[in-house]
């Protein structure tokens, strides 16, 4: 049996950062196992390729939720990265820290040491702006000079809404709209694998195994000892002399805990798995952002004039190959930020996106760009209150768990859904957007009742699941302590978005990497 000081399960946004941090000193040996393949797919690297890989089963777990009563019984597609880099290799690359209220709320809920004053320096230590000469790992780029000119039309309309225009929405601590900062470098996606794992793999003390399905964590006498994993038809065991870290994400980290006998006793025993530790909170408290989009036909050119037509698309592809710039070098989420639906609020409660492109989704799930110019406006509630769960289906590690989001189960979230529709309706009616719009592609609801019904009919995930192994001091309400140690099991930590006490106000990739870097520092300090 191979032995390592540390074993990290999952080479995603968190796992890459954890493995890099643990291996940096050269003092410890690290095994990193990832269920997916290497991240060599061309469309991972090309920023506009996000849409191409959206349903690529070779890179993606391709989950679907259970029929959701809050969304009129619809089952929602949940892509999660199954590739080196995890979801940071297939996401839309928008980078946001979240708001101070998010982290102060974490601390108040029992995640001591995770307030805004604690995490803000960690973000600054992690981020590398292109113009800065630092060794910080995560490249965050301002691509405003490459973005479609239509995005400026939206920004002008935003000023008429009274929304402040900012240069860098990623560092917002209040309301503001601007060009989204992106995890892109020199025309290529810059994933967690690029930021953390590739530098780490130059070291002799780290081993990365791809295409490895972890079947369970071996726990003996209350301590995590190792893992069993499968590569193809062959099963392997590895022993951890110090600790094991689960960084498999908000769906698979709770699933792996339950497969290993840690979780709700009824779910574990019912599947014929030996109960190691009854922890009812495993898989509970699931949160996610829900957004609704409205598309409009435009009079002025948008990305549709490039990506929806053969000749311009070929020209842009050639330009990208030669210069690494142009439409293919920029993510489709180009402009947006945080806004208040009511100016009496202390904090923004909505995140807005404007994409200079309209499209349709075919019966096969593939995205097709319209041939005529159009644009899309999207709005989502920043801090939803509804809580869902991840439930174990089988003792077979190859079987996907049940995802039960319980969307809009909170009255507050239903009110927010109506407000999201209202904000889109208002800005779409403001010049200069109104002047460049031919007609809505999607009918805009006229009443609150229609708005809520349309939200239930059409809203979908923004791919930010969190909180299924939530952090806190009290084992009765949390899975891990504020140092990410699993309550009731020694030598086992969870470090990924599943530990968020609650979802942050915006995109979760940045906060996930920050949590991973900070938790790894704590972990190393605990070895002394």
TrEMBL record:
Cofactor(s) in the UniProt record: FAD
Residues that hold FAD according to the record: 83, 214
Listed GO MF terms: flavin adenine dinucleotide binding; oxidoreductase activity, acting on CH-OH group of donors
Record keywords: FAD, Flavoprotein
Presence of keyword Transferase: no
Domain (Glucose-methanol-choline oxidoreductase N-terminal): residue spans on this chain: 81-104, 249-263
Pfam families registered for this protein in UniProt: GMC_oxred_C, GMC_oxred_N
Family: Belongs to the GMC oxidoreductase family.
The protein's name in its UniProt record: Choline dehydrogenase
Annotated source species: Marivivens niveibacter
């Amino acid at each position: 049996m191979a032995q390592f000081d540390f074993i990290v399960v999952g080479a995603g946004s968190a796992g890459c950062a954890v493995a890099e941090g643990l291996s940096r000193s050269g003092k410890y040996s690290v095994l990193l196992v990832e269920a997916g393949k290497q991240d060599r797919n061309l469309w991972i690297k090309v920023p506009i390729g996000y849409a191409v890989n959206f349903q690529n089963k070779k890179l993606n777990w391709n989950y679907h939720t259970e029929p959701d009563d809050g969304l009129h019984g619809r089952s929602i597609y949940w892509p999660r990265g199954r590739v080196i880099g995890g979801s940071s290799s297939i996401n839309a690359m928008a980078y946001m820290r979240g708001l101070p209220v998010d982290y102060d709320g974490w601390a108040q809920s029992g995640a001591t040491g995770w307030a805004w004053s604690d995490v803000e320096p960690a973000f600054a230590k992690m981020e590398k702006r292109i113009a800065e000469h630092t060794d910080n790992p995560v490249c965050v780029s301002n691509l405003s000079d490459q973005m479609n000119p239509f995005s400026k039309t939206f920004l002008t309309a935003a000023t008429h809404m009274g929304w402040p225009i900012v240069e860098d929405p990623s560092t917002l601590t209040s309301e503001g709209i601007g060009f989204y900062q992106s995890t892109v470098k020199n025309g290529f996606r810059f994933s967690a694998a690029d930021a953390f794992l590739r530098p780490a793999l130059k070291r002799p003390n780290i081993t990365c195994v791809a295409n490895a399905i972890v079947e369970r964590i071996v726990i003996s006498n209350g301590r995590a000892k190792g893992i069993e994993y499968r590569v193809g038809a062959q099963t392997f065991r590895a022993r951890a002399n110090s600790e094991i870290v689960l960084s498999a994400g908000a769906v698979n980290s709770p699933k792996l805990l339950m497969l290993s006998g840690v979780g709700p006793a009824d779910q574990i025993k019912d599947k014929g798995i030996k109960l190691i530790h009854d922890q009812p909170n495993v898989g509970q408290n699931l949160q996610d952002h829900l957004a609704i989009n409205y598309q409009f036909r435009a009079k002025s050119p948008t990305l549709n004039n490039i990506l929806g037509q053969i000749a311009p698309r070929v020209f842009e592809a050639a330009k990208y190959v030669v210069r690494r710039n142009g439409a293919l070098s920029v993510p489709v989420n180009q402009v947006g930020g945080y806004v208040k639906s009511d100016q009496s609020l202390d904090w923004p409660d909505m995140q807005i996106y404007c994409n200079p492109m309209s499209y349709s989704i075919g019966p096969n799930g593939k995205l097709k760009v319209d041939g005529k110019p159009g644009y899309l406006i999207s709005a989502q509630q920043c801090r939803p209150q509804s809580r869902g769960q991840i439930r174990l289906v089988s003792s077979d590690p190859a079987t996907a768990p049940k995802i039960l989001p319980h969307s809009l189960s909170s009255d507050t979230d239903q009110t927010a859904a109506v407000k999201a529709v209202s904000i889109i309706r208002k800005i779409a009616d403001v010049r200069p957007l109104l002047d460049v719009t031919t007609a809505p592609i999607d009918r805009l609801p006229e009443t609150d009742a229609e708005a809520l019904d349309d939200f239930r009919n059409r809203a979908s995930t923004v791919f930010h699941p969190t909180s299924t192994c939530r952090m806190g001091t009290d084992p009765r309400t949390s899975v891990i302590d504020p140092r990410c140690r699993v309550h009731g099991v020694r030598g086992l930590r969870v470090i990924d978005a599943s530990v968020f006490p609650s979802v942050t106000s915006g995109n979760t990739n940045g906060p996930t990497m920050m949590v991973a870097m900070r938790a790894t520092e704590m972990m190393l300090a605990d070895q002394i």
